[in-house]
Design goal:
- The chain is mostly beta strands.
- It has no helices and ten strands.
- It starts with a strand and ends with a strand.
């Protein structure tokens, strides 16, 4: 599962059905010591055409896009399918931090042919 940091685009293929993650440390998560993602509330995409499921905070330490460790509760994870080749999607991942803060994480998802 790739763990991305915005503004790195997420490149995927129309037939993909796999898990993805977005590291929220870049969105002020660790500005308060001990704060983690409590819930992944929603994921939306513009234009329409992507399906999202299995929204959750990461429950294991994962590797970020540069090989750095991403601690438990620091990334939003989800499954994604659909898309039309050649289409760029503006994705917004909405999470709630353990202190009640609601944060939107933007992500560019680019659907391309293999």
């Amino acid at each position: 599962m790739p763990v991305l940091s915005a503004p790195t685009p997420l490149d995927f293929h129309p037939g993909d059905h796999q898990g993805y993650a977005l590291n929220f440390t870049q969105f002020g998560l660790n500005d308060i010591p001990g704060r983690v993602i409590d819930s992944v509330d929603s994921i939306t995409a513009t234009p329409a055409g992507l399906t999202f499921g299995q929204l959750a905070p990461n429950d294991i330490v994962t590797k970020g896009e540069h090989g750095q460790p991403v601690a438990i509760g620091n990334a939003a994870t989800w499954g994604m399918s659909g898309g039309t080749a050649g289409t760029d999607y503006d994705v917004t991942v909405t999470v709630t931090y353990s202190d009640g803060s609601v944060v939107n994480g933007p992500l560019l998802a680019r659907c391309r042919n293999r």
